Amino acid sequence: MKKKNLILWLILLFAFIFYSSSLSFFFISDDFFHISFNRLAEIFKISPSYNHYIPVFLSSLFIIKKLFGTNPFVFHLYVVLLHILNIFLVYVFTKEFLKSSRKALIVSLLFSFFYSHYEAVYWITGTTNSLMTLFYLLSLISFQMFTKTRKNICLVFTGVLIPLAFLSHEHAITLIPIIICYGIYRKVRVKNYKILLLPIFLFCFISILKIENTHLEVVKIATFSQFYQSVIRSNIYLLIPIPFIVDNIPKGIPLLAFLILMIIIFILIKKETKLLFCLIWLEIHILLFSSTSLPQPRYFYLASIPALCLIISFLSYFKKNVQFVPYMFLLIGFIIFLSNRSREWKETSMIMRQTITSLNTMYSRFSKDKKVYFVNLPDSLNGPPWNAYLFRNGVERLIEYASGILPNNIYYLKTVKNNILLRNDPYINTKELYRINNSAVMLYKEGKLYFSERKIKEEK
């Protein structure tokens, strides 16, 4: 047991050292919006232009801001420590669920460096998923303890933790069916499910308020084609976690790969019935986020836990000396992939720092009521599916952070039609751009913002 504990602590230490490079990162993209709240009342108010209601997540950032100011180091330290805590909780849950300390250590190790975790660890905005996962795992562990001890205090903790998870990110609504499934697996009496009444009521209440107060165009619903692609792709990315290969799979092959994976999993379930719980957990989560989005790395953060349980259960049927090879292959692949993403997000971070300096200088040169046109802002540095985000959202808050001014008269344009790196802004011909009067034009190029030369002369 002491040896197992030592290995776990080494995993946690290695993970902290590996991700500590992100402590030097700056705020990126949506971060400027999420750290902009100055009063708790703003956080708990439902916004008609924002399709999330995540006051627990925003409150955590608000507290850090009040205590330490807008120091990006402290925010990134919070994100890394949150991930370290989740690694520990993954071990606690899977040790009991899989009935094996060895398997739990392997799951924890692979979860620590799972290739898609960069958004949840390098990006402060991604904390909404890791914070949700924290409360998600705590509620599952609490319910897990109830199934062993039958102590009602465990049910009380479960009932409290579910709303905290849900108010960190709405995807935590999957906790309700997941706890029911786990309860069925552990033969929990129906009357004990009354703990779910509060979360269900809270979900319905907030959903009604959101529907009544949110603009319909803000809510994005996936088309059937997008939904289908997201479900298939997400399963493959999670169950065959080798992005270097999966990214290059020809059309038509993903469906075949998905069917083969499902056949293998159902064979496993025949041998170990409890793995049906992992499959249900995985698929419910995938179905939920696929209804509104194509695969996003941060959405894989929670889903990677049941996926890894299935992978480790499959590989455990091979001899131990044979298992070592795929485990090391996955781990090395994860670390290489994350290292590449780290370099991209570091570059993104540097661009945001330079942008802050440029905006601070440029905004001091003209009056607050002047129209400002931002041209060719990139959505991300590298494009999908493994984006390193730049000006995805929150540019107004970025300007406020840089200059202290929350602008009203800013507009976004692009002079290039077909470029997947650019934001989805209106197109304008370059000649027309120079005909805009009484305004300032800021052109993004190679990581920097520039005044149009003609506009500089007009300003003078």
UniProtKB/TrEMBL annotation:
Task: Say if the entry is tagged with keyword Metal-binding.
Answer: no
Tell me where in this chain the Glycosyltransferase RgtA/B/C/D-like domain is found: 63-206
UniProt keyword annotations, A-Z? Membrane, Transmembrane, Transmembrane helix
Q: What is this protein called?
A: Glycosyltransferase RgtA/B/C/D-like domain-containing protein
Q: Which residues form a coiled coil?
A: none
Q: Name one GO biological process term.
A: protein O-linked glycosylation via mannose
Molecular-function GO term, any one = mannosyltransferase activity
In its keyword annotation, does this UniProt entry include Transmembrane? yes
| InterPro entries in the record | RgtA/B/C-like, TMTC_O-mannosyltransferase
Q: Which organism is it from?
A: Candidatus Gottesmanbacteria bacterium RIFCSPHIGHO2_02_FULL_39_11
Q: Which PANTHER family match?
A: PROTEIN O-MANNOSYL-TRANSFERASE TMTC2
Q: For this UniProt entry, which segments traverse the membrane?
A: 6-29, 74-93, 130-147, 154-185, 191-209, 252-269, 299-317, 324-340
